[in-house]
Model the fold of this input.
Amino acid sequence: MSSISAPRGVRDILPDESWKWEYVFKVTRDTARDFGYREVHLPVFEHTELFSRGVGETTDVVEKEMYTFDDRAGRSLTLRPELSASMVRSYLENRMDKLHQPAKLWSAGPMFRYERPQKGRYRQFWQIDFEAIGSQDPYVDVESIAVSLEIFRKLGLANLEVVVNSVGCPVCRPVHKEALQSFLKSKLGDLCETCKGRFNRNPLRILDCKNPVCREITEEAPDTISCLCAECSEHFSAVRLGLDRIGAAVSVDKRLVRGLDYYTKTAYEVLSGDLGAQNAVCGGGRYDNLAESIGGPHTPGVGFAAGVERIVLTMEQQGRSFGEPPVLDAYVVSPDPSSRDESVALLYEIRRSGIAADIDYMGRSFKAQFKTAGGSGAVFACVLGPDEIATGSVTVKNLETGEQHQLARAELSSFIIEFKSAKVKKQEGNLL
Done:
């Protein structure tokens, strides 16, 4: 019988990488706190109509990429392909409009899209998602972009390009639609089949097509900025001014429309020069009509999502630090079977003091236990044999220096804790 492997497009995040993810989440969590965002945890699957109505039926996500299934009651459910629609659904359902506005929320977790797996892109992928719901102030757009940039700054990322655009609103978008259709009408036969289907339904999506022929055809197409209404133009100017005031270096990309239909006014992306064709580390924008599209009242909002896999990959390629990998503080060594019970008791004593510790569970010899202790990364080997038990002591060996101490058992935890504290202070002093 052949063994079962993971499905195509998903992968295991193993211990030698997961600690890097934890570092990214820690930086994200700290930044969220600094900006006043509170964490929420949302369902992995939702009713399919949340995404078909919210994200847009003509988007690639809904047309081609969603994992949709019927449950046993015949209800159509979908594994979430993105988080903004779920976040707005939760805002409406839980009456977060009664909270201080805007409601500033963030979350992290897996998303699911059936697309071709490639570098930094999987069918199950993790995103960090930030949303500010309830305000149409352009400076909330500025803050949303600033949050993502601050996360990347703290992570040490470089070679990033921030591009921004305005995709208008229901007032001015029909003007752009008419101008775009007029421009493309004579060129319709040369477009790819997908874009031909979008010509009448949603021609704005044609600007997002990655087909080289379609991109060349639309190179001189009317842009959204030239068609903005007064309100959208004023909003975009305020966003650009705000970004300038906070020192955020951004450029305008008039082709940027993003791949989801709910965007209004501001759209932006953060691109990395180290990721090749799939170079977006982060993307987002404003979605003032998303709540209405899923049956709620008019509720403005803005947010972004950043791919964790792409963040980690970019950091690795740029040689950025993830901090220190997790290691043990101590490894309890039991030289004789008769001292096994007391060794296990000692292990749990020091763990309860906040010390990371382990013990041999494979029946290894005394010598092999020391070898395992060294390989574990533990600083100290704590030997508890019959002699130590008889005298109420523990033999402690520093595996880095070879220095050895005989301590009273009751002093072991405080000895290790003080050593760790002194080491941290020394490291901090070296950084000053």
About this structure: The longest helix spans residues 15-35. The first strand starts at residue 38 and ends at 39.
